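Example 9 (inverse folding). The structure is encoded as follows.
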């Protein structure tokens, strides 16, 4: 990486990059790791983990050039964090079960967030501190809800959440029946998605994973619709919705 970033003889593209330009690639590589895991492709997972590691090295090298930190500092920091957050493994803390471990983990993280806030602006710590704004919407909704739940802001079971979903659907219908402003419709749809993420959490389902699986299912079935129509020398653009719906139902039946 040092050679790639060398202004004298390095790669012109690599030399020109900065943290902001590389960040989207880092996010993309993390998604490609997740994709390889979902496909259970271990060879691809090995390669994608290498690509993700390269992103870590890239950022660390740019920071080293600015004399901020280096790769060894990154590795040391995560090692220290893991030791600190596992006192039952690396110290003498008595944490007998998973529930106790989770409480200990969150208490330690809360202390870390408070120290970080005191270093930055001295403001009051929030249960929501540290939830990245760059996370995908559903993932961030889940994390915000989990943080709020840990301090008691939560329903006891899924039933009220489903009632909330019905309520949000009603509000969307009200907006559409009136003189719906686009920003109001967007807000109500956002509330509905947030409530759906909350229901996923109560049911023990990761909403991002569930949506990825739903996307894959839709793609698989729609491709089958295209194949069925192609066997008749037709394409989706050539037929009406009723014909496509019949092909869709056939694709669903074949899967079952």
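The amino acid assigned to each position is listed next.
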């Amino acid at each position: 990486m040092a050679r790639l970033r060398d202004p004298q003889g390095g790669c012109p593209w690599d030399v020109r990059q900065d943290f902001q330009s590389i960040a989207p690639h880092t996010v993309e590589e993390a998604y490609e790791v997740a994709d390889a895991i979902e496909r259970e492709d271990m060879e691809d997972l090995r390669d994608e983990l290498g690509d993700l590691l390269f992103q870590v090295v890239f950022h660390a090298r740019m920071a080293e050039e600015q004399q901020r930190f280096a790769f060894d500092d990154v590795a040391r920091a995560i090692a220290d964090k893991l030791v600190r957050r596992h006192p039952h493994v690396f110290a003498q803390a008595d944490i007998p079960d998973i529930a106790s471990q989770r409480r200990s983990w969150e208490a330690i993280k809360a202390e870390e967030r408070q120290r970080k806030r005191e270093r930055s602006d001295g403001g009051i710590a929030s249960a929501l501190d540290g939830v990245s704004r760059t996370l995908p919407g559903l993932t961030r909704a889940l994390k915000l809800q989990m943080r709020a739940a840990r301090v008691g802001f939560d329903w006891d079971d899924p039933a009220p959440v489903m009632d909330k979903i019905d309520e949000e659907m009603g509000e969307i219908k009200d907006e559409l029946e009136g003189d719906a402003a686009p920003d109001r419709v967007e807000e109500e749809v956002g509330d509905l998605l947030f409530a759906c993420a909350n229901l996923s959490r109560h049911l023990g389902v990761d909403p991002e994973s569930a949506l990825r699986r739903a996307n894959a299912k839709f793609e698989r079935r729609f491709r089958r619709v295209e194949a069925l129509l192609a066997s008749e020398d037709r394409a989706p653009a050539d037929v009406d919705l009723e014909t496509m719906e019949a092909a869709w139902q056939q694709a669903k039946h074949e899967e079952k």
